[in-house]
Design a protein that fits this description.
alpha/beta, TIM Barrel, 12-stranded mixed sheet
Length: about 350
């Protein structure tokens, strides 16, 4: 696995010297790791609960969720974000579990939208509860929504989610559009042996309704530990399927080098599609993301085996400077890459619904 390229400054200077160099230029020290990656994006898990049971994320039954008292309050989340924003975090994405099961979520959105320095506020949802909340979320200041949509077939939806609800997801998507969300993105997990017949219908659906669509390679984050490398349907394979069935695709370029997707444009001018090739073509070298779990643990990688306890600071005698130091320590410890495919790779002990997407 190739390491991040890093910057000359970091290769020649130690951590304190590098941070001092930013201070000397009257700049706020950014959250920069040992490989020169500057972190500006934060995923916020607000709950580990979910109303479906997708096999690539959760066990089917007997799920033990954290008690409410262990979850960060809205006030604690806002405080953490306000501190992180002083260190260069300017993009937030609210995740879960399923974030819309968290009571009064629009109130948190309103708080976060008003934090100085936050320029982008988005949310990822399975869409089941979106129809009832889309308008309130928009009014509260949410600007972007990603909806998980792996299929347009109810039978396949039940196979993946182990629950019914496809119609409610679709109703949620169109409710978000009516509420005025200009950028609605559909996320589809791609699994070999399951997703091949879903790719073209999803692409046609997105093209027809002017939604963005991203396919995400199946990653080893399932609760059952059943992931297999051979079940990864690669971005390259999906691109070939789409070109054969619809029309050629051309690279669409990228405005942000840290975005996880490689985007393509249909040459007939109808739509853009992205591929997040986390397994076949890792993008770790440009990663700028951190994660805060619902119970207040900071993670520097989706596949990290270590966490930093922000809740202990938030609920203890620690102050904002202690939070800043925790963030610096977390970022500095980040590995060059996630390591999937390497012999020593170990998937995280916690599955996706506990980490937060």
């Amino acid at each position: 696995m190739a390491a991040a390229s890093g910057c000359t400054l970091h290769r020649r200077l130690g951590r304190s010297e590098c941070l001092m160099s930013f201070s000397d230029r009257n700049m706020k020290p950014p959250l920069i790791d040992a490989f020169g990656r500057v972190h500006t994006s934060l995923r916020l898990g607000v709950t580990d609960r979910c109303n479906i049971r997708c096999f690539y994320c959760m066990p089917a039954e007997k799920v033990v969720f954290r008690p409410r008292s262990e979850l960060l309050t809205f006030e604690e989340i806002e405080r953490f974000v306000a501190v992180a924003a002083t260190m260069g975090i300017n993009k937030l994405r609210i995740t879960g579990g399923e974030p819309l099961v968290r009571s009064e979520l629009p109130k948190l959105v309103q708080r976060l939208a008003q934090v100085p320095g936050i320029e982008e506020l988005a949310l990822t949802t399975n869409g089941i509860l979106l129809a009832d909340q889309a308008a309130d979320l928009k009014a509260a200041g949410l600007r972007r929504i990603n909806v998980s949509l792996d299929t347009l077939d109810e039978e396949v939806f039940r196979q993946v989610s182990r629950r019914s609800g496809l119609k409610r997801v679709l109703d949620g998507i169109f409710s978000a559009k009516r509420a005025g969300f200009e950028k609605i993105r559909l996320n589809a997990i791609a699994i070999r042996g399951l997703s091949e017949n879903e790719i073209v219908p999803l692409a046609e659906f997105a093209r027809e309704h002017d939604f963005e669509l991203r396919f995400i390679e199946y990653m080893p984050l399932d609760a059952d530990g059943a992931w297999k490398q051979e079940e990864v349907l690669t971005g390259e394979a999906m691109l070939r399927i789409l070109e054969k069935a619809i029309c050629p695709l051309e690279p669409a370029g990228r405005n942000d080098s840290s975005q996880p997707a490689v985007d393509y444009r249909f040459v007939d001018g109808r739509g853009v599609i992205g591929f997040i090739c986390s397994v076949s073509e890792p993008f770790c070298g440009n990663c700028n993301r951190l994660r805060l779990t619902a119970e207040g643990q900071v993670r520097n990688c989706l596949f990290s085996t270590a966490e930093w306890d922000a809740r202990a600071v938030l609920r203890g005698p620690g102050n904002d400077d202690n939070l800043r130091q925790l963030l610096r320590d977390c970022v500095w410890a980040k590995r060059p890459a996630h390591g999937i495919g390497e012999t020593e790779f170990q998937p995280p002990a916690r599955p996706m619904y506990q980490i937060g997407g």
